Amino acid sequence: MTECRLRPEVEPVYEGGLKSLVFDKIKEQAVSVDSPSVRFAQFGPSSRRIRLQTLVRLRWLAVAGQTITVVIVGLLLQFPLPLQEAGILVGALAVANLTLSAWFPPTHRLGPKSALALLGFDLLQMAALLFITGGLANPFAPLICVPVIIAFASQPLRHSLVLIVFALVCTTVLAFSPYAVPWYEGEPLRIQPVMQLGVWCSIASMMMFAAFYAYRVSHEATLLADALAATELVLEREKHLSQLDGLAAAAAHELGTPLATISVVAKEMERELGPDDRFREDVLLLRSQSERCRDILRRLTSLSAESEEHMRRLPLSSLVEEVVAPHRQFGIEIELVEKNDRTNEPVGNRNAGIIYGLGNLIENAVDYARSKVIVTVEHNVERVAITIEDDGQGYAPDILSRIGEPYMTKRPKEDERAGGLGLGLFIAKTLLERSGAAIRFGNRDSGEPGARIDIEWPRSVMDAQDSK
């Protein structure tokens, strides 16, 4: 059992982030569903683009730092320094900042190519300033890593790789700088070639390590944010579908009276008209269609109405049966074991998150069971526990250590059917934990093959669970 899938309406393949289909689904609902999750996801991938104002502020810090350094080194310490050239380079960065601030609004977000161009300009400006002040012998040489780190933390990988290659080229050129490090006159500071090679290796290794770390942290944060947005979408859709039940029941109730009136009038007209009257056929059609509408409305009234308080209350046994019922038609036996008497079972409010989360886990068990799934329900005065077991191959050891991570795509070699333990399982786990549950994943300890999932709530949570 190695895959937990989304339901069909939100079941695209997720690899490396949310696909456009999810955002399209959210946008379709954005007019009618006013929720924070929809408003967040409506921006889509563009919401993770770096703001121009963020780069502008970082560049002003660079301008201030470079200016202070030049003033201290050239004017206060009186070291020989090409002040004119350094001033031109610092001024170019300041002018570029002023131009960007004048042309674009503060909320403008940069595309990958624009961000790459700006960071490339920053890197080139920093490299030129270091080149005329000693190259790799300059103690500020490691600052050339800063644009690379920013790129890996905020930009797509392919654009960031271009920048790091450019940075390594600039670092290599700095090793051949003909300019001396600003130092006391008459005491030239000589840096041996082997020392320059060591500095180059130090800067290159620091650049690659910091870039890799920034990329991994940023990438994982982005995946988690996408997965949480999808979780909110799924929960919102579950609540919306539940509300449609109540709307259907209300519509059936409101339309029942006028349809009954139409039916009565049609019967009176049929009685008054003669057997050969030319309107008799139309009256019979009107009566039959009104009866058909009443049959449809009677079926609608069988749906649960969220607006009725007594229908919102759901005993634990009914909740489990409601979750299990849709999965009994797939050729896999589902055995429901209740260890306690129903007379003292907890009764709480219907919770879309619990229903969807348990349903996803049971669907997962049915998909990978050989012949049987066992759902065990247990409760006492302190806790409520549900255990889901199947007789499939179970979880591989390396999978168990990572269960619950979004976008996990590793596949066990022994099972070609296995898909990724990804967003579906993350959503189910998140929704159940949000309801107050503690979840443990593992394999059956009875010596038989198969996976086992233990879900446990405090009794007080399940006895009066508010719908969220």
Automatic annotation (TrEMBL):
Histidine kinase domain boundaries: 250-461
Catalytic activity: ATP + protein L-histidine = ADP + protein N-phospho-L-histidine
Claim: Phosphoprotein is one of the keywords in the record: yes
UniProt entry tagged with the keyword Mitochondrion: no
Gene3D superfamilies given in the database record: 1.10.287.130, Histidine kinase-like ATPase, C-terminal domain (3.30.565.10)
Main location: membrane
Enzyme Commission number: 2.7.13.3
Full protein name: histidine kinase
Species per Swiss-Prot/TrEMBL record: Neorhizobium galegae bv. orientalis str. HAMBI 540
Taxon lineage: Bacteria, Pseudomonadati, Pseudomonadota, Alphaproteobacteria, Hyphomicrobiales
